[in-house]
Amino acid sequence: MKTRILLLSLVISVILIGACTNPKLPAMTLGESIEPIPEAAPESKFGIFTSERDLQKLDNGRDAWLPEGVLWERSHPGYASWQQIETSKGNYDWVKIDAYVKGAQASGIQILFTIWPFADWDQLTYNSDLPEEPPLPIGDAERGKDPSTFLSLAKRRGKPCDMNAYRQFLGLLIERYDGDGSNDMAGLRYPIKYWEIANEPEVDFFFQGSSRDYFELLKVSYETIKSTDPSAQVLSGAAVQRRGMDPDLGFRPFWEKFYKLGGANYFDIANIHSPPDVQRFADFLKDQGVEVKPIWVTEMGSVNDWLPEYGMKEGDLTSVTEALVRVFTEAFENGAERIFISGWGRKEHNPALREAIRIIKGSHP
Length: 365
Known about the structure:
The chain is α/β, with parallel strands linked by helices. It has helices at 2-21, 40-43, 52-56, 62-65, 82-85, 95-106, 120-126, 163-177, 211-228, 252-260, 278-287, 303-306, 317-333, 350-363; strands at residues 46-50, 70-75, 86-88, 91-92, 110-115, 194-197, 233-235, 270-272, 295-297, 336-341. The protein has one domain: TIM Barrel, CATH 3.20.20.80. 40% of the residues are buried.
């Protein structure tokens, strides 16, 4: 009997050690009908950045659209919007976000959701003095970005007025997709564990608030998510492309103040929107006293903004491919763990992006 007990103890110890030391994904509890996250997803270094219009074009499904090895998706603005889900206080509509989750999971995609913490009915309480539909960020209007893409968001985008209502919404959102078998979405195949809090919060178009406002929002969001699903991973809103680190444009001070308030305590993964600036971003975090955290690039920005300095010649797919390979390689070597490809709708770059991803997969498996 003692021998059996000893053997059983050894087996349990090995299982526990394996669970604690596996760095691929946080430990999680699954409901009986829920599958684990597909094994290939944590290994994939690339994700896709999609708009609702992109998704509407997927007549043949994602499998025919995505390059091999791209197993993550960040839809923008996406469907984790308080405005879109809680249409009035206490009334929830999960139809669109559920349909999106089912479509992505049918192709084995792991979702990174951006949470938009704004609802018109909430913003009117204290934020009615904020301008409606603030202007597009610097450069986006010149590049032809269509503000109608963001019509699903609330018109005003300040810090939530009723934080208890926001906590309620956020807890229900996380619980619906955590895969623990309690109040899960019907048909959920595997858990969703990655949540980004707002987008480029230093830009008024996406967040009409100060560093302190965003700090308070992120703190409440982090604590709510972790209390609902301790194995979930929280991303900070990304520093905006190259401009986010440029002191002359006024965005860097936003993040300096945020970190002085202790913002680094309330996210698991740091986030930037420019692959060429990963090293500069890592250095910036170090300057702010931030302990080592994973870095994801959840948007590439406009490739035409920075690829020419890497030798890209417009219209020459070979030079574009070579430039992309160099950019991606440097980003991974400088600490990026994952890059979400944006601009996929620009058909002229798609062959180069596919080839660059194939090359990177071979050299950075």
